[in-house]
Structures are given as C-alpha cells and as structure tokens.
C-alpha cells in the first residue's frame, strides 16, 4: 500500500480518488500576501473557494494538487480550513513556479542548497509546520529556461529522486531540455509532468508526442481557459485557447494511443491574489471537459485512467534510491 502526502497528513493511495493534478487555492506573484486589497476581501475569498471546491466534491472530485510554489500564496493553515470544510484532499507543493518567482534570498543559492530546501519541505514540513509537500513545482521563466531555472530543475530532480515525489512543471516551452535536465540528474521521466502543453503560449502539439514517447506525462492542465469566456472588462488571458481547439489537440494524442501518458486539470485559481481573472473553477473539469471527452468517444475506462490511476501513479511516493538519500538541511522558507 502506497502513501501520498496531503496537508492533513499522509493518506493511502486508495484514498486519493478523482484528482485534479494542477490547481490553486490562491495564487499571486511574490508580495501578494501584503496586498491589502485582497486581504480586505478575505471573508469573500473563503466563501468563494469553499463553494468551488464543494462543487468539485459534489461531482465526485476528491483531491487537488495545489501547484502554488514558495512565495506565491501558499498558506497552509488556511488550506487546512478549506480542506476540512469541503472534504477535498489538498496536496501541497514545494519548489518555485519559475525562476521569475524565486524570492531574492534564494536566487544565488546552489543546486545542493535548493535540493536540501525541497527535501526539507517534503520530509520535515513547510514553513515551520509539520505539513509535508507531496510534489515539487518548477517552471520556465518568461523568455525560456534561464540559468536559475536550470538550477531549480536540477535541485528538484535530486529531491524528487531522494523522496519519491513527482515533479510538475509550469510551461512546456523548452520541453525537451526540461526532460534532458531531469534525466541528467537520474530522475525517471515517469515521475514528471510537462505542464501547460495545451496553453497558447509556446504551443507545439508535436512536442506532446515527444514527451509521451520519452515516458513523461503531457499536462493538459489549462482546461477552462477558453477564449470564448473573455469579456471587454476581463479579457481572456494570453494563454487561453478556443475550447474546441484544445479538445482537438488532446484527442490527437489519445487517438495515437497515449491516453496513459497524460493528465487533465484546470489550473483554476479559486481566488486570484492581486490580479484579474476570468471566472474559472476546477469543477469545470468534471462538468464540462469530461462530457466533452465522452462526446468524442473516450471510454469510461480512459476517463478513470486520467482522473484516478495516473494521478495515483504520480503522487504515490516511490521507494527512494538509497544512494541518493539526503539529510534535510535545517532551512525554512518562512513563507
């Protein structure tokens, strides 16, 4: 029986259930925790967040992975209230969304230091709590992989290999180089999701096939960011896509026989911290996208693979390599 780290403690793999692999309770850029505009709205924030996750739970959803990294809105006590109130398991991430969001204190740190930081949050706890991360988040900076990004990627690979948790990436730009970095550090690619492959930014459907063929997972995880939702007041974000166009892309991979090399999720932000967002909810994964897949002939067995079996494979902590075990550094992010 495997186990998975959640903010309420470790759970058995069998308790995971239907899982959205890339979501956010509340994401914002570094410093968002000091923005009084959204702090003043906190009661409304809690109400909206609970309503969205309760709807996901009513539809059968049981778990979300919150991909908010260090310094971009992680709030463990708040998340625990949300989880307890809604009954939705929340898996927290260590790591950074991208080099663009790395707090200044960490920007000049070595790969070894960053690996110890991530290891600490997975095995000891996040920000002085005993809540352990269940995945590592890394990402590509605007403009492509930077030297800092590559340091973070190498550190993440070392921490993931030592602890057995998966890595989830932000953006699929330079996807081949991302996979090369992980493999150079000895991390099997079946522990990696190359994320946002369905977003308009850096779109390259042929890359999906290269990811799948190398054994990593293609992240179709901006579901619901549809251009049709934009309004003059709140335009659709630049990474949005026409709904049908995204579905066509996903079906191309599935029709080629790679349903077991994909994850589906929404990257929905229950409450955007300091930036405008179109209305979007993780519930759309089950309310809209799964029916769209079924209308295209996708079987119930494949839906179960996407929502239950693949997330369980990824989030269940694998046996770490004895030669890669690390001591947790006595570090704390303080965020």
TrEMBL record:
Its cofactor is a divalent metal cation. Binds 2 divalent metal cations per subunit. InterPro entries: Metal_Hydrolase, Phosphotriesterase. It comes from the Bacteria. Zn(2+) 2 binds at residues 137, 170, 196. Keywords: Hydrolase, Metal-binding. Belongs to the metallo-dependent hydrolases superfamily. Phosphotriesterase family. This is Phosphotriesterase-related protein. It comes from Alteribacillus persepolensis.
């Amino acid at each position: 029986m495997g186990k998975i780290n959640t903010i309420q403690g470790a759970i058995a793999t069998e308790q995971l259930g239907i899982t959205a692999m890339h979501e956010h309770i509340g994401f914002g850029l570094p410093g968002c925790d000091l923005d009084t505009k959204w702090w003043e709205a906190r009661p409304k924030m809690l109400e909206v967040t609970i309503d969205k996750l309760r709807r996901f739970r009513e539809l059968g959803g049981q778990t979300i992975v919150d991909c908010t990294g260090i310094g971009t809105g992680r709030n463990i006590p708040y998340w625990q209230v949300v989880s307890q109130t809604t009954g939705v398991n929340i898996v927290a991430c260590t790591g950074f969304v991208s080099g663009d969001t790395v707090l200044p204190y960490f920007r000049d740190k070595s790969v070894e230091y960053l690996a110890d930081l991530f290891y600490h949050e997975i095995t000891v706890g996040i920000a002085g709590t005993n809540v352990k991360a269940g995945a590592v988040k890394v990402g590509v900076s605007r403009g492509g992989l930077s030297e800092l990004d590559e340091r973070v990627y190498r550190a993440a690979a070392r921490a993931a290999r030592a602890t057995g948790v998966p890595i989830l990436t932000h953006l699929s730009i330079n996807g081949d180089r991302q996979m090369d970095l992980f493999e150079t550090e000895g991390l099997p690619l079946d522990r990696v999701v190359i994320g946002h492959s369905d977003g308009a930014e850096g779109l390259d459907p042929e890359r999906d096939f290269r990811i799948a063929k190398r054994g990593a997972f293609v992240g179709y995880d901006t579901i619901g960011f549809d251009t049709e939702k934009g309004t003059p007041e709140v335009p659709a974000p630049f990474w949005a896509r026409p709904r049908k166009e995204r579905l066509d892309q996903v079906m191309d991979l599935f029709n080629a026989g790679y349903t077991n090399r994909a994850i589906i999720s929404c990257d929905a932000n229950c409450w955007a911290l300091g930036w405008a967002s179109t209305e979007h909810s993780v519930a759309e994964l089950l309310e809209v996208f799964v029916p769209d897949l079924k209308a295209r002939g996708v079987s119930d067995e494949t839906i179960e693979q996407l929502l239950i079996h693949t997330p369980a494979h990824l989030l269940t902590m694998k046996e770490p390599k004895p030669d890669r075990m690390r001591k947790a550094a006595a570090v704390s992010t303080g965020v």
